[in-house]
Amino acid sequence: MRFSPRLFTVVALTLLVTAVTSSAAVAAPQSAQDKFKFKLTITKANSGKVVDSATLKCRPIRGNHPDSAAACKDLAKVNGRIQKIPATSGVCPAIYDPVIAQATGRWHGQDRSYRHKFSNRCVANQETGGHVFNL
To answer: Can you give the pTM of this predicted structure?
Structure first.
């Protein structure tokens, strides 16, 4: 059996197109939804038990966070850096029930993480602006 140069060219081009489209699918940029996304958790500091969690997606606002719009607005003001959100005023009970507030995700496509121990959930919420960890 003899192969013609034309058949060889068609087969080579087909393989090249397949390889290029396959690698493009693997290296595809993140969707806009993944560029503004956080996984939030509140954990009991003493036991490590997760007591609450939520997914917060901004641009467009989605996820199961109970106050996504306000939380995304707070994050937008500080470029996704939770530690820079100003505390909100209010009164919390003087009960020592320590929690760890943690967030991992992306903002403008850049990795962001936050982890801080607070004396209780109320303090965690107020010290982070009143919205992000209001789960």
So the answer is: 0.73
The amino acid present at 3, given as its one-letter code, is F
Q: Which 8-state DSSP code applies to residue 1?
A: -
SS3 sequence, 43-104? EECCCCCEEEEEEEECCCCEECCCCHHHHHHHHHHCCCCHHHCCCCCCCCCCCCCCEEEEEE
User: pLDDT for 39-79, tens place per residue?
Assistant: 999 999 999 999 999 999 998 888 899 999 999 999 999 99
Do you find a cis peptide bond into 66, omega within 30 degrees of 0? no
- What's the CA gap between 64 and 134, in Å, rounded? 12
Residue 23 CA neighbour count, 13 Å, CB half: 5
